Fold each of these.
Amino acid sequence: MKRLLVILSFTTPLFAQMPMHHHHSDPIADFLMRQASGTATNPQAAPMHMFMTQERDWMVMLHGSAFLNQVWQSGPRGGDKLFSTNWLMASADRKLGDGHLFFRTMLSLEPATITNKSYPELFQTGETAFGEPLRDAQHPHDFFMELAAEYAMPIAEDAIGYVYLAPMGDPSLGPVAFSHRASAQELPQAPLSHHLQDSTHIAANVITVGAKLGMFGAAVSGFHGREPDENRWDIESGSIDSWAIRVTADPTPNITAQLSTGHLHDPEALHPGDVQRTTASIAYSTATSSSSLIFGRNEDNNSLTAETLWRFAKVNWVTGRAEIVDKDELTDEETVHRIKALTIGYTRDIWSNAILTAAAGGNFTLYGFPSALDGTYGSSPRSVYLYVRIRNAS
């Protein structure tokens, strides 16, 4: 229990003397600060829970989030568990020549706060634990979620070019990863569509080259396509054998959209073979709400995720996630089953100071699935989460 609870306080000394500041006058600095995972961005209007301070020539930014969760799941494949999902990001930005040099690291203690290499999640699949494929369970994030350097500079009027280099990072494939997506910030569990939409947010040896001209952007990446192994504490390695390309549009500060495709070389350890992934998404944010609609496809398997988050009276958060996703790893027969899931949740901020905000909340999930799985999952399995959450003050 002590090991699980430590995650609730690990951010305090780091943030204790960081002033709040949310505005840049430099468009390149604004562009870099919007990046939430790799070079993927939330809408410009999305609130940012972060602290910044100027240290000589460097603008230093810190932010993070941690949930302590208790989950109960019904049905023959359901499980119960106490665990923590969490991440911490630190970045530093300075002017260099005509542009900006940007360093970022993203860390997670989930390898320590999620025991037995997974937490229960009905109908979830992807990656392995103890040499076996994960079914009805979600793997922890790696300790090193991102280690990256980026240089961005003006290349023409109203145009920015950039190069992103990451021993561990996120290539130009998919939307912002769920951990950092504005519409998912009050949902501690991974979406069932994760491995069809944004699972490459932790990839080895990423090189991305891109440009943004006005509201439009484009980027291309090379990276190592294999999913992370079960050693969640190391830095993955491997040759650059996969590619991705993404185009984006930001027609207003409230909207961002992307279309991307990527060729993943042999991504799964237990299922040899290449995968072509294609995704499309649109996100909308205001000061009090965020919503996303995301499509993802791996070969013949499709997924659709809709998320929304609404904040009212400053301390109340209502959230929802609806998914339709094809799963072919739920049984040994590898038959494709179309799964539906609906999650509704509520979080209330219960304490805050200038540095941190703490909250308590919960959510529940209902499922729809083919009758052929009744014998495996029962007639009406459910998931219930209760949690406490701590992150930067708003």
Note: The longest strand covers residues 58-73.
Amino acid sequence: MPGKGKNRIVLAPQTRLAGVEHLAPRFFREVLGYEFTDCLITDESDLHDFAAGTFGDRNADVESMLARLEAHYLIDARAAHSTRIVDVLEFLEARGVTG
């Protein structure tokens, strides 16, 4: 039987991300240090996914990302109470960031 025993990969939704994708290229470049087009991002992607090191070090990396975000956008994204990328991008859009 074809495909028997093979695991399937199911990609998490990207529907929310599609609504704020116009903000992603600048955000990825300035905050995460990556090119958005080089990354696979879903509605479940988190800043921790882009942090290096062990879990404790990753938390420090995320704090650095949030500090860079505040420096570039003049908005404290900690008020979003989430480190999911789509939540942060929606938070930025709600505060008037357009690109």
Note: Helices lie at 15-20, 24-32, 55-73, 85-94.
Amino acid sequence: MTRRARLLRIALVFALFVVLGVLVMPGRLWFGQRNDIAQAQDQLSELQRENRQLEARVDTLSSKSLIEHEARESFGWVYPRDEVYNVTPAPPLVVNLPAVWPFTELQQPLADAAADS
């Protein structure tokens, strides 16, 4: 094999690597970018959906009747001359049984039942 043939083979191998590098690398980058774009579009559509939901919530919360309802429920807001009644929960039932035999067996179950009600 002559020196010229050897150089020609080396040049052909080098040219093949250059051509593959020029064709393959951009193709891989292009496919990777397509995946990135698809993920970004999915994320964008999800954010747009959330944005529409939040805008609908803002529109709902902007109504005067709902603002008044929230003010009454959350902050105890009343109109002048309204009568406000606060109903407190009933105190827990207390079970006091004598500390003798049949009642000692019933004390704990009755206390548990009273706490559940």
Note: Residues 1-62 form one domain.
Amino acid sequence: MLAQIIEKGEVTRGWFGIEPQDVDDEIARVLSLPRSEGVLIRGVQRGGPAERAGMQVGDVVLDVAGRATRDTPALLTRIAELPPGSSAKVTVLRDAKPLLLDVSVGKRPRAT
């Protein structure tokens, strides 16, 4: 992070444009998941990187770039670490089947 500040004058973080929620026991039961792990996608920003990659509301993210995402903090950390402009393989569970998506990582917008 310090290297980014020195080199670019700011810290850039990866961004997908999603609204995540932890998979708890109730969500796991409703979605017929084997365990309460992963992150449910509650919202996808129109025109954002996740939507362009085909991510949908109801998908459960299992890993980002080969690294497990057991909860929302882990998912957001994995995404933030990705360089904007890069591509990341994301495994989601959709209709109880794994699906591999290729997300073009966006740059996290500044908070207003």
Note: Helices lie at 2-8, 25-30, 49-53, 72-81.
